[in-house]
Amino acid sequence: MAGLAESGSNPDVDLLYDINGLAKDAPGWFDRVMEFVGEYGLLLAIVLLVVWCWWTVRRRGDEDAASSVAALVWAPLAAGIAVLVNVPIRGFVERPRPFLDHQGLEVLVSGKTDYSFVSDHATIVMAMAVGLFVAHRKFGLVALVLAVFGGFIRVYMGVHYPTDVVGGFALGTAVALLLSPVAMALLTPVVRAVERSARVGWLVRGRGRGAGDGEGAVIPGARREQASERDLAA
Description:
- The chain is mostly helical.
- It has helices at residues 11-25, 28-60, 65-93, 98-101, 120-135, 137-156, 162-178, 180-196, 213-233.
- Residues 1-8 and 209-234 have low confidence and may be disordered.
């Protein structure tokens, strides 16, 4: 696989130089911003989207709140599993970072000594984005856009080939989707048990929106009817 990167005539390397060349023409402050966004910012943004989606779901308190929260729990778990799956892939492919084989790249982050294929960052953000999409379409679409932008930034920074990013997207998507049925089957009962808990049920439904709220509304009415009957009897 590493041999594919030795010649600048292949499309992967050509696209690498085209995208990374934008960093050379950009002002220094812009490159620093892109460096922060590519390393930390987009991942943090997707995590905040997951938290925001959880807050929205629990406040709404729909009947399917437990399954939605279970899907949200699966999003970071999918990212973690995808990274673990990537460990043997990286060791098997052993593709060096692009700046080790190609001269003239504008490398925004130094000290990257591990292998390049596939990109951990691309794997993580896409797995979380797909997991979020399974839980909530609108939040998931925003996360998917952010994930794609994050992959672009990794090439812009000069630390990955485009195919490293595409491979990360494919791996993250595969893990999040293929294991989702098993994950939901395991996580949903656990979340439903949490939902029924008096102490931590608020993690799934907002206070006053529990599964027994409908019953609570019926009981006071029944009491009022009984009181009225007693008044009439008196």
